[in-house]
Amino acid sequence: MYPIQTIRNQFPILAQRVHNNPLVYFDNAATTQKPQCVIDAIVDSYTRTNANIHRGIHTLSQRSTDLYEQARARVQTFINAPHSREIIFTKGVTESLNLLAWSFGEKFIYEGDEIIVSAMEHHSNLVPWQMLCERKRATLRFIPFFKNGELDMETCKTLFNERTKLLSIAHVSNSLGTVNPLKEIIDMAHAHNVPVCVDGAQSIQHTAIDVQSLDCDFFAFSGHKIYAPTGIGVLWGKEQWLNELPPYQGGGGMIKTVSLAHTEYNELPFRFEAGTTNYVGAHALGVALEYVQSIGLAKIEQHENELLNCATQRLQEIDAVHIIGNARHKAGAISFIVDGAHPADVGMILDKKGIAIRTGTHCTEPVMQFYNISTTARISFGMYNTLDEVNFFADTLQKVVKMF
Ligand code: PLP
């Protein structure tokens, strides 16, 4: 049995009412709510251990450093990375991908080189590569996708050539919910000696990640999408790649020695962690990952799939509702539009019933352009959502549709 009530009790925010209705939080792809243990970890850090890390010999600094490094080790186990020094703490996926685009670009990208992304990427996995291509006069190439939201893998095969230097791809699309065939893409890229970066923003919370069996070269995720605070995230990279990359930012912590004339850089991972990091956030991320592990991602995935299947079926039963993205393998999120109603109006009416959904482009404007729509409404699930909530949402949407 999935311990749904025990889980819900851990998330204090879920107990509140919004517009006098129980809160139904279906905006988990944007950010997730935090369990009490994560909130406690933050309060406890500032109440008992707070001190800057790595630079102090006093007790609090050492405690704080230990918590930070324990969190790194926790991330390592969570994604099955070979070494904890391959885990770089960042602000989140956006910073991880900007770091990679800058550092990888600086070292390996020359005029005329090519980088591959898909046409369904979040702006975070598109704009940094566009900026790099502009800076280096390189070319960005796109894996197209079909109307059903699945990647066109036949065309993908044709995109590689001797100028291809990197492929960066979302594991799960945040606007379509598509789970991309990651292993197939990675194997294909490696057959052409092309390294692969995975944007794991929408997969880390829904399915177990093993970077060694995936054999990707880089993997990025954000803490706030997996029940941890905002402002903390991870870039994992294979050590042999990270060792080749120049530091992204200069400052304290990333150096070994500095003179006025010259700086020698620190080892991994510190070389990529300039300045005071979000060490409290990192500790809380470690606690969040431990919490997720205590329930088990396999169980969470099964539960969320039930929610997804039920919601898909209920939405398909409403004639005026059209799901955007009908890939065979989906996770976490469903985008939809309603005939004759602007998604923002649908979202506002649902909010009056306590149901929090997201409306907009979901930072995937090219996806909206592909479907020739301006925005969608999107529901997305977390480990604490229930089938009752899905049914309440669908019943309410049915009434909303009649109003239009
Ligand atoms: N990539 C995907 C697929 C996302 O869904 C998001 C956030 O929604 C991001 C990247 C960016 O994540 P963050 O804003 O936490 O950096």
Describe the structure.
By secondary structure, the chain is α/β, with parallel strands linked by helices. The protein has 2 domains: 4-30 and 296-403, Aspartate Aminotransferase, domain 1; 39-294, Type I PLP-dependent aspartate aminotransferase-like (Major domain) (Aspartate Aminotransferase, domain 2). 40% of the residues lie in helices and 17% in strands. The chain is built from 14 helices and 17 strands. It has helices spanning 4-9, 36-49, 59-79, 93-108, 127-136, 153-158, 182-191, 211-214, 239-242, 279-295, 297-316, 343-352, 365-371, 387-403; strands at residues 17-18, 21-22, 24-25, 87-90, 114-118, 139-143, 164-170, 196-199, 218-222, 233-237, 255-258, 263-265, 321-324, 333-338, 355-356, 358-360, 376-380. The strands form 5 sheets. A 7-stranded mixed β-sheet has the order 4-10-9-8-7-5-6, sandwiched between helices. The chain has a 4-stranded antiparallel β-sheet with strand order 13-14-17-16, with helices on one face. A two-stranded antiparallel sheet has the order 1-2. A hairpin with a 2-residue loop joins strand 1 (17-18) and strand 2. Helix 11 (297-316) runs parallel beside helix 14. The two termini are 40 Å apart. The model has no long low-confidence stretch (mean pLDDT 97). Bound molecules: pyridoxal-5'-phosphate. Pyridoxal-5'-phosphate binds at residues 29, 92-94, 122, 124-125, 170, 174, 199, 201-202, 222.
